[in-house]
Amino acid sequence: MHIEHAKMTDTINILAMERKALRHQHAKKDYLIARLRVRIASLEQLIPIPNHAPRDKSTVTCYECGVVGHYSNECPKKLAKTAPNAAAPGKSRF
Ligand SMILES: [Zn+2]
Predict the structure, then answer these.
(1) Which one, of 84, 35, 74, 38, lies nearest residue 54 by Cα?
(2) Side-chain half-sphere of 26: how many Cα atoms within 13 Å?
(3) Could you tell me the distance, in angstroms and rounded to a whole number, from the CA of residue 75 to the centre of ligand 1?
(4) pLDDT by residue for the chain (94 residues), tens digit each?
(5) What's the half-sphere exposure (Cβ side, CA atoms, 13 Å) at 84?
(6) What are the residue boundaries of the CCHC-type domain, all occurrences included (predicted)?
(7) Residues around the ion ligand 1 (C-beta < 5 A)
(8) For residue 70, how far is its CA from the centre of ligand 1 (angstroms)?
């Protein structure tokens, strides 16, 4: 019975140690992830986000009038048509 008890205590001690080690690893992992997130955020500031990057307008064709060099939302013909409403801000932003 004494041996069994000693074994059980050993097992409990080992489990406690493993749990402690795991918790330490988790803390380390969280720390590394947090550091990586900061690094990623700083790197993202260096890389232009494609959607926000200015596109070469010389290659775009307006599907409003078919003229190369501007987007349909900048189309002079369309703007002339919608001129009375264009003054209202936020309308084109949808
Ligand atoms: Zn146009």
Answers:
(1) 74
(2) 6
(3) 4
(4) 567 888 889 999 999 999 999 999 889 999 999 999 999 888 888 876 666 656 677 788 999 999 999 988 889 998 888 766 555 555 555 5
(5) 1
(6) 62-77
(7) 62, 64-65, 67, 75
(8) 6
> Cα of 81 to ligand 1 centre, how many Å?
11
* Rounded alpha-carbon distances, angstroms, from residue 31 to 36, 44, 62: 9, 20, 50
DSSP state of 52: T
Supply φ then ψ for residue 23, to 5 degrees.
-60, -40
3-class DSSP state of 42: helix
